[in-house]
Design goal:
five-stranded mixed sheet, alpha+beta, 31% helix, 191 residues, elongated, 11 strands
């Protein structure tokens, strides 16, 4: 008989719990409580949404002329660009033009960095890969963007490319470390 008595005790406890659940107030009060709880949950979610928008803005990886990009305390800015037909000794191939992109790199990190126009930069004109052009640099007698930058110091210089005369957009990707996959993309749109 003890087994049967235990069953009835369990059933009685379940019935008491169910009755207590219904006795907690009228359906209208419960509806109001649910609405308040849902509103509070929505209000609590708002800062999370704002935080995600801020993170998206910080993750920007495409920059235009005059915009500063930063990665691991290294700031890089595409200062300007200019086109050139070359000089009497160094000229672009027929149908091409030289484009000189001037950058400034500011090393705010604790260690020196190496900036190499050949290794730190990849470029594309209208989606086609470009190589830096020594002839463009020689024709324009500009300081090339190559060197070691000590902590707290800067370097400024140009990278020259030979591109088709009818180019519309040049993308220049900078990586502060040859082995890194983190790239900052600078875009030049022809004016």
């Amino acid at each position: 008989m003890k087994k049967g008595k235990g069953k009835w005790i369990v059933i009685a406890i379940v019935v008491i719990v169910i009755i207590a659940g219904f006795a907690g107030g009228s359906p209208e009060e419960k509806k109001e409580d649910n609405t308040v709880a849902q509103t509070e949950n929505l209000i609590q979610d708002v800062p999370v949404i704002e935080q995600k928008e801020e993170e998206t803005a910080e993750e920007k990886n495409q920059f235009g002329i005059g915009e500063e990009a930063e990665y691991k305390d290294v700031k890089i800015t595409l200062m300007s660009y200019e086109e050139s037909q070359g000089d009497q000794y160094f000229k672009p191939s027929e149908g091409n033009i030289f484009v000189m992109a001037e950058f400034e790199v500011d090393n705010n990190s604790d260690s020196e960095i190496v900036v190499s126009s050949a290794l730190s930069f990849d470029a594309y004109a209208d989606g086609y890969s470009l190589s830096y052009s020594v002839n463009a640099l020689m024709a324009n007698k500009k300081t090339q963007l190559d060197g070691t930058v000590a902590p707290g110091k800067k370097i400024k210089g140009v990278i020259g490319y030979e591109v088709p005369v009818e180019w519309k957009e040049i993308e220049i990707h900078f990586t502060e470390n040859v082995w890194s996959s983190n790239k900052m993309e600078f875009v030049i749109r022809k004016e």
